[in-house]
Amino acid sequence: MKGSTTLAKRRQRASAICAAVFLTPVIILMLVYFVYPIIATFANSLTRWNGISPEKIFVGSYNWNKLIHDAKFWKAFGNNIKVMAISLIVQMPIGILLATFLDAGGKKFNIFKIIWFLPLLMSSVAVGYLFHYALATNSGIFTAISELFGGGKVDLLGNQGTALYAVIGVICWQFIPFYMVYYMAGYSSIDESLYEAAIVDGATRTQYVTKIALPMLVPTIKSAIVLSITGSLKYFDLVYVMTGGGPGESTELMATYMYKESFSKYNMGYGSSIAGGMFILITLIAGVTMYVMNRKKED
Amino acid sequence: MAKKNTAGESGKKNYGAWIAAVVLSVFWMLVTFVPFSFMVMTGFKQKIETIMYGAFHMPEKFYPDNYKGVITDPTFWTYFRNSVIVLIISLIILLFISACAAYPLSRFKFKLRGPIYFLIVAAMSVPMHVTLIPVFNMTINMGLYDTIWALIPTNVAFATPISVFILTGFMEGIPKELEEAADIDGCGRFGRFFKVILPLSTPGLSTLAIYNGVNMWNEFIFAFTLTQSESNRTLPLALWNYQGQYSSNTAMIMACLTLSVLPMIILFIFMQEKLVKGMMAGAVKG
Fold this sequence. Notes:
heterodimer; A: mainly alpha; MetI-like fold; two-stranded antiparallel ribbon; 12 helices; flat; B: MetI-like fold; 2 domains; 14 helices; 73% helix; 0% strand
């Protein structure tokens, strides 16, 4: 009896050592590229620093005070919120509809799947440049459509009132296929026998979708909502190349503002505060969203 | 899924819903396809055509010089080569260390298992901008600034959380009996990992390779921040530099865009099912 417990203990210790060996590379990577940078960002946010000189001047909460009263930052945050809200309203339903259609059609609708999938293959930079030109006033697509119906030139990106909505439209174009794939994954995890049983019981396809499949997709929808929210709040690449935050500040987002402060103006101290502020806001909003969604479930 | 009914087979079909679905589908197909064909077609136009006529004007005759110009430009191939090198090395390191980490997380019981797993899952939702300035400084201090080697650790690090998460789930699904059999045959823990678990994880690894490969190929912000010279930048930055050089020449930019997307499209044509599956695997992360 005693012998077997020590053997078990020895096995356990061997397991622990082995686990340590296997986990070391990933743990080092996480410490160096996640834990340390997050701490360093908050430490840097208390300094005035140009990022290059060894001289970091400690300024206490100066940058954070500045951030709280920085109209530009809150304008950017507001733009992020608009991106978030419209993305949710537009991307979620269309994503579900497209996935439902593909799920119902099976292999026959492959051609739809292939074409709908295309934007996912492009980088955000490529999408940004494509629409920078595709929405241009002179040779753009919307101008061409407008002229087809006898209208004039359309300037979506150069107009402060429409630029943000044009950008959001492009974001939807890029990400709807992602959510489509997401919901396809959700559909494929539903047991096929459920569908067969429903049909045997005399349900129609529409009834199957609304009464059985959609309720089963609720967890998928919830996590898609969280993904879309955090994604919208940290959006960067596409906007940076397509509009650079302009015209004026009409398409400025938190991330583009942070990038410009840090890497164009070299205010790395203040840039760190913006990054830290972003981190706090995103965590807060995602946390509240998850809390609210999970509480509803229990009621 | 293929077995499921379509409209024609069901007696109680709902025509209204199907018509709405088809209209939406065709509409969305146009929405996706028009900008895409704008890109490819404009690449075949002469500069003067893009100025004189609207977007829907077909090219007078297909003018291949833009594409030729990009392909024969040696710097384009430098970008391309850098992208390939960064992608391959990053993927190999990523898959290996993620598999190593997923093995004990899925198989062993030890005290820190919970906290470590939590740390890795929590890292999935960290916005990379929070880490950008310290990573930038670290890269300079390590002497890696403006080399392609700076991009490999960032690529690997930011793909690690999702990869470990998915692989842990995958390895939990491998029957314990297989490992026990190897144990009885005298295989140590390391031997079991390399001889049993790793080979059986190939499907999981290949979907991860696809999902992360697409992301790495398209990675922009670290490549933009951590490199500077033309000779050390990756393909997404080629677009940035071409834009600076040919900003008024829409046709040339569109040709460059098309060529940068082409490798992904070729990949998609040859392994469509796998690519969709890979993206679906990435989608499970919520």
